[in-house]
Design brief:
The structure is a homodimer of 398-residue chains. Chain A has 398 residues and is α/β, with parallel strands linked by helices. The first copy, chain A, is 30% helix and 19% strand. In chain A, helix 9 runs parallel beside helix 11 and helix 10 runs antiparallel to helix 11. The longest helix of chain A has 19 residues. The interface between A and B is medium-sized, with 41 and 28 residues. Chains A, B: Belongs to the BPG-independent phosphoglycerate mutase family. A-PGAM subfamily. Chains A, B: It comes from Vreelandella rituensis.
């Protein structure tokens, strides 16, 4: 619902601590990673607060990082699904401008008949990827500026920037999403995207020529053509002056899209907390992003994820001493190490504030949170709950 | 949400075991029927899986069998409400064709002033109902074929099949839904249904003449005019090749509407399980319907319902030995024997799969499920959850 008519002044400060991929599942009888971890500080926050489980998108849906974070910031993640091209640009700190069309690229392998035999060219390493990107940087197109940037391994970013005429982004993927078939034509889905499709077509033709003698990566596949979305900022939506402490580019990028101040800091928790302390007096919504929980989950490393959670727990007192009025600790999705990937399982959350209804849950873990006082709720409601506990929202109706 | 963009190949098989009217309420301090029953096999599935409570339509809404099953198959039961006439046809295995208009009929009693004094003609028995239906089969109409079929007691099915011009189904009930007033005119709600209304009017006039000397059933009341809905099949919606093992016609009919293969089998659990074993290799979504729990609930027979649940429990090992990747056990609604009818109480559900987050619930019962890891959720999400646990869904967003 539109909260703007309900917004009211408050000095209260809200701290969102987002442990990426926090949720897990049991494997080996030790409970989830969060349950197996020794977390006295998180347990104390939970026992003096309210807990629950969230679904970032919907029950059974596995969220990408984009939807996961959009939901945490109170934006419906289906309505505001940020395109893959844009997220790729955000992920490498590329300074995307309004009107730019961004796409995610893969180096791939074609056989002599022009059929895709490997969509990732054997997952060539990042060094090789960067070398090929340097070759593609030679490509010039009429009326459109071209940017090609390496991402990781076989991945790269393509950005088309209009010189004269505006570009649409509704262009079909050239990636056929399966092997045994040639790359697809970049067909425009609307009149406004015709010029984009022509430019993409020309880019692909030149890339094919440039890469013809390379091996195993002799072609490119493009997908997720997208432009910067029009999003109301946190200030417009909630009257909040937001600030992001996030070491990884993609999360910084999403925060920037929502008008948050993005502080330069390293990717490690200590750097982020130091930056948090510096930023603290100047903002009323602070978002700290902790990546390691997701990384260890993606690695399939149960003990590593447990250790990451314990590291976060040890850092909690340094954040509490800033005396946030509302603390939310949660994740943007689950990443069970047993699955070594994002998953659909609902995400544990704790909310701690003086105005909480304490719910009798005494430890921070998935099983305990399933019976918590916040219930099982769409993650997009967390922001409303935080605003309410911070005294930022008036009564609705008389 | 539309799952089609997220579908991905998986070999995993999903088994839905639907105990009709499963949910109950306590009466006499023994807990619900499910809680009073000895169910070691269901308890084991629950303790190694995830549990919750579902509401098929919405909190407080008592579902009919149609909405209850549509929700289980992931279709919003309000958006896709199958008309009563169609469900009546499905319930007696009548081979309804697209374009047919079906209605549910009651034999009723009129007094000498033409006022309805009993909407069910004293609930005449099925034999008497069938005799009267045979009389109505004499009715002929211009431009429309007429089918009249007995259902049970005072109930019958009317089907109008167009010969030339298409028929609409938006016609008011002739059933006034109360006594002390004459039957209503079958008024068309739109131009396209004018011919239907005229045909119904002529049918009713002839029926009144034919039945004039009968007692107590001397007239008919019609309601729920409807046509076969346009529904995406399970294959279109989820890429699933579905198969229904259901002894009762209505459930077979609903399954057929959704493009499932419907196997011929008797109405008893043993026949259904034998058919399940035969069908198993050829499908990836298998729906087994168990009717007795609802029947005993409708009878107001607590012990009978307990015995039905125990019978289902004893059959569980024979289904597990097929090694389904995802097992869902639930009901389409609650039928507490204390109320002897369908009810609005949420329905216990267990989901068992290797990819489950086990939730600490150790027995399958309503009270335990209320604290389960699936939470309290609309039943239409169960299909998404089953697909997720079966590896049929890709990540949403990047």
């Amino acid at each position: 619902m539109d909260l703007r008519p309900l917004l009211t002044e408050s000095e209260a400060k809200i701290l969102f601590i987002v442990a990426d991929g926090l949720g897990g599942i049991d494997s080996g009888g030790r409970g989830t990673e969060l349950e197996a971890a020794r977390t006295p500080n998180l347990d104390r926050l939970a026992s003096q607060g309210a807990t629950g489980l969230t679904y970032p998108v919907a029950p059974g849906i596995t969220p990408g990082s984009g939807p996961g974070h959009m939901a945490l910031f109170g934006y419906d993640p289906v309505e505001h699904n940020i395109g893959r091209g844009v997220l790729t640009a955000l992920g490498i700190d590329f300074d995307l401008e309004p009107g730019d069309v961004a796409a995610r690229g893969n180096f791939c392998t074609l056989d002599s008949d022009g059929v895709v035999t490997d969509r990732r060219a054997g997952r060539i390493d990042s060094r090789e990827g960067a070398r090929l990107v340097r070759m593609l940087k030679e490509i010039r197109l009429d009326d459109v500026e071209v940017y090609v940037e390496p991402v990781k391994e076989h991945r790269f970013l393509l950005v088309l920037r209009p010189k004269t005429q505006a570009l649409g982004a509704r262009v079909d993927d050239t990636d056929p999403h399966r092997i045994g078939t040639p790359p697809r034509e970049p067909r425009a889905q609307e009149e406004k995207s015709q010029q984009t499709a022509r430019a993409v077509s020309e880019f692909v033709a030149q890339a094919r020529e440039i890469l013809a003698q390379e091996e195993p990566a002799n072609m490119v596949l493009l997908r997720g053509f997208a432009q910067l979305p029009q999003l109301a900022s946190l200030r417009e939506s909630y009257g909040l002056d937001g600030c992001a402490l996030a070491g990884y580019p993609m999360y910084r990028g999403i925060a920037r899209l929502l008008g948050m101040k993005v502080v330069d800091c390293g990717p490690d928790l200590d750097s982020e907390i130091n930056a948090l302390k510096t930023a603290w007096p100047h903002h009323d919504f602070l978002f700290l992003h902790f990546k390691e929980t997701d990384s260890r989950g993606e690695d399939g490393d149960f003990d590593g994820k447990v250790a990451a959670i314990e590291k976060l727990d040890r850092a909690i007192p340094r954040m509490i001493e800033l005396q946030p009025d509302v603390i939310v600790v949660t994740g943007d999705h689950s990443t069970p190490s047993a699955l070594a990937s994002h998953s659909w399982h609902p995400v544990p959350v704790l909310l701690n504030a003086n105005t909480c209804r304490v719910d009798g849950v005494v430890g921070f873990g998935e099983t305990a949170c399933a019976g918590g006082g916040l219930g099982h709720l769409p993650a997009k409601h967390l922001m409303t709950l935080a605003l309410a506990h911070a005294g930022h929202l008036r009564k609705f109706g008389a």
